[in-house]
């Protein structure tokens, strides 16, 4: 990932092709915790001149407490209900770039909303990369109740087959966030044909 689209002469053409392909739809990033949804989503939003929204932050604002507290006080099912309502509201609003929590796309109703009303990008990362990025973090409820590596491995096994239903699949590596942003932009631009129709990518 050594391209530098953001500073190249092709940048405007790449951005224009992405915006034409989106056709006013929100761009949604999905994936496991540590994949870079918020970081890359925010950077891509800046290039597309769209607002960036983190669904987890929106849920915390709506609930008046942290994600960890919601899990502790009300349980995961109540959190998923609130998450679904927040994502539905956001997808019915203005076009944005949206980063979702790792479990959002797993819930069938939420997944259908994302697939029907947006263009989805799965940031696919392997176990070692996710471990590196989540190590020492205490704000992720699912990793606080056991061995994080084992938990992440289980999540990969159960969630990755579902994430594979996303419109676009991007494989993350150890590249810098700037190089990753550029590679994501390039993949997005190549994910729409000359008529602006979405081409499924990844395997």
From TrEMBL:
PROSITE patterns this protein is in?
Answer: SHIKIMATE_KINASE
Q: Which SUPFAM superfamilies match?
A: P-loop containing nucleoside triphosphate hydrolases
Key words, A-Z:
Amino-acid biosynthesis, Aromatic amino acid biosynthesis, ATP-binding, Cytoplasm, Kinase, Magnesium, Metal-binding, Nucleotide-binding, Transferase
The cross-references to InterPro entries, in alphabetical order and at most eight, read:
P-loop_NTPase, Shikimate/glucono_kinase, Shikimate_kinase/TSH1, Shikimate_kinase_CS
Q: How does it assemble?
A: Monomer.
Record family assignment: Belongs to the shikimate kinase family.
Q: Could you tell me what this protein is called? A: Shikimate kinase
